[in-house]
Amino acid sequence: MPKTLTEQEVGARIEEIRLRPKRFRDDRVTMAHGAGGKASRSLVEGLVVPLLGEYAPSALGDAAVVTVEGTRMAFTTDSFVVSPLSFPGGCIGDLAVNGTVNDLAVSGARPLAISLAMILEEGLPADVLEQQVRAVAAAAAAAGVQVAAGDTKVVERGRCDGMYLTTAGVGVVRSGAELAPEHVRPGDKVLVSGPIGDHGVAIMLARGGLDLEADLRSDTQSLWPVVESLLDACGPGVRCLRDATRGGVATVLNEIALAAGVGVVLAESRVPVRPEVTGACEILGIDPLYVANEGKLVAFVAPEAADAALAAMRGTAAGAEAAVVGEVRADPPGRVLGKTGFGGHRVIDVLVGDPLPRIC
Amino acid sequence: MRFVDEYRDPDLARALSAQIAALTEPGRHYKVMEVCGGHTHAIYRYGVHDLLPDNIELVHGPGCPVCVIPMGRVDDGIAIAEQPGVILTCFGDMMRVPGGRGSFLEANARGADIRMVYSPLDALRIARENPDRQVVFSAIGFETTAPSTALTVLRAEQEGVENFSVMCSHVTIIPAIKAILDSPDLRLDAFIGPGHVSTVIGCRPYEFIAREHGKPVVCAGFEPLDVLQSVHMIMRQLAESRCEVENQYGRVVRWDGNPLALKALSQVFELRPFFEWRGLGSIPQSALRFTAGYARFDAEQRFELPGVQVADPKACQCGEVLKGVLKPWECKVFGTACTPETPIGTCMVSSEGACAAYYNYGQYSRQRLDLQVL
Amino acid sequence: MSFGESCSATEGCITCGDTAIVLTVVSIDDADACCQDATGRTERVATELVGPVEIGDRLLVHAGVAIELLPHDGVPEA
What we know:
The complex is a heterotrimer.
Chain A: H1 7-19, H2 38-52, E1 64-68, E2 71-80, E3 86-87, E4 90-91, H3 92-105, E5 109-121, H4 126-143, E6 146-155, E7 163-173, E8 189-192, H5 198-207, H6 224-234, E9 238-243, H7 248-260, E10 263-267, H8 275-284, E11 297-301, H9 306-314, E12 323-329, E13 336-339, E14 345-347
Parallel strand pairs in A: 5-6, 10-13
Antiparallel strand pairs in A: 1-2, 2-7, 3-4, 5-7, 8-11, 8-12, 9-11, 10-12, 13-14
Helix pairs in contact in A: 3-4, 6-9
Chain B: H1 2-5, H2 10-23, E1 30-36, H3 37-46, E2 56-63, H4 71-81, E3 86-90, H5 104-109, E4 114-116, H6 120-129, E5 134-141, H7 146-159, E6 164-170, H8 173-182, E7 190-193, H9 195-201, H10 207-213, E8 217-219, H11 224-239, E9 245-247, H12 259-268, E10 269-271, E11 274-277, E12 281-284, E13 288-290, H13 299-302, H14 318-322, H15 354-365
Parallel strand pairs in B: 1-2, 1-7, 3-4, 3-5, 5-6, 7-8, 8-9
Antiparallel strand pairs in B: 10-13, 11-12
Chain C: E1 21-29, E2 32-36, E3 42-46, E4 58-62, E5 65-70
Antiparallel strand pairs in C: 1-2, 1-4, 2-3, 4-5
């Protein structure tokens, strides 16, 4: 008979298991592996990274930072398989640019150039292709990046959903920017750059084929102006930035809490959410904290820099509705807790899987 | 949005919380079971326990239909899905329930055509759109959901859709509550009754709980203030030594339920003599099957079902957890072998399952944390 | 448009959560009603289980099927 454990001991064991690298033990890839939650983590940490061995990335952030002849460069890549191809506020073309640009930006890097690889489905109407490439061009111009290289493949009808795009990007890291989860420490403030959940909800509603009375649009946009302004205003007071894409703000907070070994407390009533998003989430039965964004970042800043950071973000178009939403604690390490608007609290965990995949 | 906020007001919550505390007898420990998974969810989602005194314990009940599906039913579903030409449809949470041979999600990755639907009527639409395929709906749920399935079958009959059938695993709530009440090692003070099940069956079916077992029942809505108010109503009954069925969710639930829904149910379905519940074992007259008149829509008769019997994993103590005898963390495999990513027992699968809820939220729910921020 | 799009499994499933939502009838098509939520989203809802409905009625909807017709004044019925 095994010794009966106390609740505290069981809790401690759960925490220990939770912090272990995830193993990949599935026979097949399922949709859950692409949803950004725990299953995705098991695929990356349990299969890809171990197999790459010494050639694996040392840190799993938004972009890798490599030093080339004394210059710190950020490098990243991302694929886009969104359906439908166009939706209120954006399309796969601008997502492909802004997604990669933002991965560079939150690494503290000014985006310089991207590559664009297109996988097209046989039968794709030329005007759809033209519309998407125009969107790529417009987003690249807005973000100030060159589309410096590209590739095209066509697959048989039915093999992909119209088009898939992959972009890779390089940027130069701003001098003095040292953004990493390890720099986050208890007492730091947590900010978001604006109302959350717009992108994911816009896509979910676009999929339903409904006429939207509510003016809900994807927030796809470049975040570099926000980052630049933050770094100008706060310098090393900016500890870590994350782009709150797949899995939403909740997932980003969990990633940082785990990587930095800190606790994060979120004041849920302070998180900006548009009423239309709140309403739609209520009806869809989902939590805006887990909904994807394509133009919102989460910033961890030193407490003394928080006011300057907020002002700096609010001074930019993409950060006009920024807010301080939470605080870093020493305890409980690796956990995100929410103070609910109702007056209680809850644990905000990473989702296991997401039944609404492919929104980025 | 106003219709939401009025049931989540923190000031009202604080006021109710104080009234509840005033009604508790010092030194007495109260155990209240919320039967329905939706309540479990609301309690964790909004931190309702923070507003209750330490001596009121909320015990999670069996009201999660996914959690009570035996593994063999999942295997039977997969066996149907693997027959040529079949499209199996189901609700989202069924996708991850482990059977003896994996889950629907894994069967899909192996090549079966299993699709998630939001309504059985969507399954019927898929059948209409694919006349050369056999479309099967894997039906789960309590009395809230069973009328939707019954209505879909009635429509399939009306429209003459012959390639549609249902694998019926609908269960009924009252026998499950009876099984819990008959469990010798359980001491409960009261029940929070399921809100939407009661929309269909009404409040009368719970009267035996008050009459024969001497425990108050309050049918409750799903907003956090609903839950808090139902606890308040229970505490008032206990303080006044009353014992009756009350309806907190009067804005939705009628005392006698929905007669049209009940009629559709009895037209299409009848009680099974026995149904195997995961963890709770075989419970008489606790599930639905097709009546003779609608037997042609019964997937169990249309397809050759292996009728798989899989014993619950030995280490798993879902049954004790479902009955509220064990707390989730007291199960031997909880949090180690059995986690939300690799669930052994069904209580760990659905986010409404007692174990998954405790795993994700529970440990900190009982600590009074200082969360003053900013 | 299909039935029951308003439900999702992200935060819990339709049946487990015993989830139902309140929608308002905006048009009627035989036994189905086109219903709208407070954000303007519309959904097709089967109404046989609540009897005849009128435009403006509020329905409690579970899995694409109305399971209760709610009183207009919000006062509980006996």
